[in-house]
Amino acid sequence: MSIPDFGESLPETASPEAEFISLTHLNPSTELNPVPSRGIDLDFFKRYVATLEESGYDYTLLPYGSNSADSFVTAAAVGQLTQRIRPIVALRPNTTPPTVGAQKLATLDQLTQGRAVVHLISGGSDAEQARQGDYLPKSQRYARTSEYIDVLRRSWTEPAPFSHDGEFYRFDEFGPGFAPFDGPIPISIGGQSDEAFAVGGAKADIFSFWGEPLDDLRAEIDRVHGIARDAGRSALPRIWVTFRPITARTDELAWAKAHDYVTRIEQNFARVRPLLAGTNPQNVGSQRALAFARQKELYDRALWTRTAAVTNAAGASTALVGSPETIAAAILDYIDRGASLVSIRGYDTLADAADYGRNVLPLVRQELAHRRATGQRGRLQAEHLGNYGAEYRQFATAGQP
């Protein structure tokens, strides 16, 4: 593998700033050590949120599923337990009418003094959507999300009551709606279907991707930004990319941990979610993740796909493996390709959140501060090559057949 140029010149695609996202966990259950519970361990939840705040994260995602805690309620709790972190509410349009969603989000935004963000999930699985009575086909789910965004934004800004008669929603004389704290709330969309790109490029403030090889992700960024430009937008969607880092003091130790982790994750996935093993995922993001994993396990500086392969790409599952310096350099590679929101969450959830905050985030922020001060790239990426160096590749394959 040839070593890219990590000289002083910054790529034109590089984001000048980056912010960090985590995902809030409600109890100690992990993919390494599953705990059969859908409940909230309040002491753990408070400790986890405090760790995110102390560790310097900027946002935290409150996930949503048909059998999980309500994301609005948990986001409100996060908002009151923190002073700075911005809670991101995962919201499925089929669960909440848009006028009600607008009120709930504006309420959260008022309570947190302007920190609320919403991530709209159109739904990648027919079976999961049906559990809460949603039987629209996927193409129509994204059309519904498009209409949902229009109603949200109008609800937050209309100075007088308004009516709406659309394809999916109809109401008379709503509003003026309860207003956000200080202007509209950022709206995020994820997905890699054609429908997701069409809606997200035209209307989203943030577009979310799972971790992919650098060139492939950059092509997807160009695609979503091209759609935004074609829609006449001057402000392009920010790019959010998600990874599951596995880190230790050295690259060698990180790979020993990664090999142990993937064995445990594979065994637990087969036991806890046996019906998903070997099935063909319906959503395009998972299909892409599995295609990358079939092609090879290791990409670019530190992207590892084996974790996606053993979980059937059920959610964000691609890893970054290495020392804190290698992980930070890999994150900077993605910032150089245009990502400005980086989600990192581990497999040992609470310990990893603290570890990243202590050892990874400061390195990335130090490099970005150097760039702002000098207009040039620092040495971190050139000195911690990861998979661009032969020794790292030996660690990655040590003990493997």
UniProtKB/TrEMBL annotation:
<dbReference type="InterPro" id="IPR036661">
    <property type="entry name" value="Luciferase-like_sf"/>
</dbReference>
<dbReference type="InterPro" id="IPR050172">
    <property type="entry name" value="SsuD_RutA_monooxygenase"/>
</dbReference>
<dbReference type="Pfam" id="PF00296">
    <property type="entry name" value="Bac_luciferase"/>
</dbReference>
<keyword id="KW-0503">Monooxygenase</keyword>
<dbReference type="GO" id="GO:0004497">
    <property type="term" value="F:monooxygenase activity"/>
</dbReference>
<feature type="domain" description="Luciferase-like">
    <location>
        <begin position="38"/>
        <end position="340"/>
    </location>
</feature>
<dbReference type="GO" id="GO:0016705">
    <property type="term" value="F:oxidoreductase activity, acting on paired donors, with incorporation or reduction of molecular oxygen"/>
</dbReference>
<protein>
    <recommendedName>
        <fullName>Luciferase-like domain-containing protein</fullName>
    </recommendedName>
</protein>
<keyword id="KW-0560">Oxidoreductase</keyword>
<keyword id="KW-0285">Flavoprotein</keyword>
<dbReference type="InterPro" id="IPR011251">
    <property type="entry name" value="Luciferase-like_dom"/>
</dbReference>
<keyword id="KW-0288">FMN</keyword>
